[in-house]
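User
Here is a favour to ask of a fellow structure person. I am asking you to supply a protein in sequence and C-alpha cell form. Please set it down just below, with no commentary around it:

Assistant
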Amino acid sequence: MKILVINSGSSSLKYQLFNMETESVLAKGLIQRIGIEDSFLEYENGEGEEIVIEKDIPTHKVGIELLLETLLSDDHGVLESMDEVEAVGHRIVHGGEAFAHSTIIDDEAIKNLEDVADLAPLHNPPNIMGIKVCKELMPDKPQVGVFDTAFHQSMPEKAYIYALPYEYYKKYGVRRYGFHGTSHGYVAKRAAQMMDKPLSELKIITCHLGNGASVAAVKNGKSVDTSMGLTPLEGLVMGTRCGDIDPAIIPFIMDKEDISASEMDDILNKESGLLGVSGVSSDSRDVEDAAAEGNHQAEIAIELFNYRVKKYIGAYTAAMGGVDAIVFTAGIGENSKDTRAGVLEGLEYLGVEVDYEANDCRGKEVFISTADSKVKAMVVPTNEELVIARDTMELVNQ
C-alpha cells in the first residue's frame, strides 16, 4: 500500500510518499513560496536523487498538480499511475474537542474543522485548503486527517481547564489543547520499545524541542498534561514565541507602546523567544555560537530555554508521581548535546545522570544516561509523517 502524506502551510507544502509494506519513503520534498515570486518544488526520490523545479506556483492546487506530475514523471518519478496511491494523509494542527482521533475526512469533518479554525488561524485554514485541493484532484482517494491535538485529548479536566470564568470554555472552547501530539505519542512509544517495557506501565516525559517546543507528561501511554495551551504560544521558550509570561505584561506593554492587539500578538509569536532575548536569531545554533563568543543576551537566552524545560520536567514528575524516562526529540532535542546536558544537569536527584560520551551524538536513537541511572534519558528522532501514514493505512483498511 502506498500512502501520500501532505502537510500544507500557508505558503509551503511538505510531502512524503510511503510504501507501507516496508514503511520506506519513496519520495519526499517541499513546495516553497506558494503565491509568492520565485516559487519552487524540492523533490527527492528514495534513491537519493534530488531535483529542484523552479516554476510559478500561484496556488496550492498548482503546487499539488506539479507534485503529482513529478511523482509520475519518466525521469524522476516513482509511480507509473496514481492508481498506486491508495490514500492521502493530512497533518492538521488543531482538532479542538471534535477530533480525539485520526479520522476519514468527509464534508461533515471539513465543516467541523472550519468551525474550530479560529483556534488556529495561521495553521488550520491552509491545512483545510490542502485537503480540499487533494479531494478535487484525487476524488477517488480517501483523505485522512491526523491531528496535533488528538493525542492530548486524554488530559483530565484539571489539566486542561484554565482558571477563567467557566463560560468561556463552554462558549468558545477556551482550554488547553496541546500540540505536537503526533510527535509526543510516537517518541513515547519508541522509548518504551527501547526500554523493552510496556508503554502502559511507564511514566515518560517527552521533550519536543525545536523552533516550536513543548513538553508532555505521558502516563501509562496517555498524555496527562502538556506545556502548550489553547494555542502553541504557551509553555516553553521557543524560536520566536515567548512561552509562559505574566498575562498582565500584555496590557502593560500595549499601553506603554501604544500598540494594537494584533501588533502585540505579533510580538509574542514572532519577535520573542530566543530571538527576542538574544537579539541574534531564532535559530538556537546561531544563539549558541553567539553565547560561545561571550554575548550576554545569547547566554541568557540559552540558559532560559534550558531552565524552562527543566522546570516542566520537575512539574510533570510531580504530576505523574514519578518518572521512568526523559525523551528528547525534534530539531534541537535530537541534535544539540549542549541543550540536552543543560536540561539534565541538576536532575541527578531524580535518578538520572548524563553519559557525556553517549550524549555526543546527533539525530539517532540512543540512551544518553549512565547505565546505572534509575531514570533513563534518551534521544528518539521523531517521525510524524510515518505516524500519519500508519494512521491513514489503519483507517482505510477498516
